[in-house]
Amino acid sequence: MPETMSEEKTERISQRVVDDVMNERQYQRGRWSIEHDVLHSDCEWISILATWLGKSASAAVGGDKSTLRKRLVQVAAISMAAIEALDRAR
User: Cα–Cα–Cα angle for 63, 68, 73, nearest 5°?
Assistant: First the structure.
């Protein structure tokens, strides 16, 4: 049976994930710009996410946990970009 993780450790891990996603999102903004993001249609965002989920799946199938984590952080940051674009269009 897995050992129970302390609330403090759980919070540290969660915060690291959030920090990594925000850092990736900042990188993406610098590379692509907000102006670029608003040009994508809803369907294009889904296509972009599907592409990166596919890359995540390839890493998972290959057993490469380091690359899987990196790809999932990228997927989360791309999801943020899509949500930001939706919110800007309101």
Answer: 170
Cα angle 46, 13, 59 (rounded to 5 degrees) comes to: 45
Q: Taking the CA of residue 45 as centre, how many other CA atoms within 13 Å lie in the half-sphere pointing to its CB?
A: 18
Cβ-count burial 45-61 (b if 16+ within 10 Å, e if not) = beebbeebeebbeebee
Q: At what angle do helices 65-88 and 42-61 cross, to 10 degrees?
A: 170
Closest CA to 18 of 76, 57, 65: 76
Query: Under a CB-based contact definition with an 8 Å cutoff, are residues 14 and 66 in contact?
Result: no
Provide mean pLDDT across the span 11-30: 97
Give the pLDDT confidence of 22-66 residue by residue, as tens digits: 999 999 999 998 888 989 999 999 999 999 999 999 999 999 999
